[in-house]
Amino acid sequence: MATEVELQTILKTPMKDFSSDEGDNEFHVNYRGRRYEISGFLKHHPGGRQVLNAFRGLSLDRALDRVPHSPAAFHLFQDFQLSNKTAYEDIENLINWNAPLLSQVASLKDRYWEWVNLPVNRPIRLFKSNILEMLTVTPWYLVPLVWIPICIYFLCLGVSIEISSPTVSSICKILLAFSWGFLLWTFLEYTLHRKLFHMKPPPDSKILISLHFLLHGLHHKAPFDDRRLVFPPLPAIFLAFILYNLYEMIFPVFMLNIVASGTMTGTEVILLKFLKTRFGLLNEE
Question: Model-level pTM?
Answer without folding.
Answer: 0.64
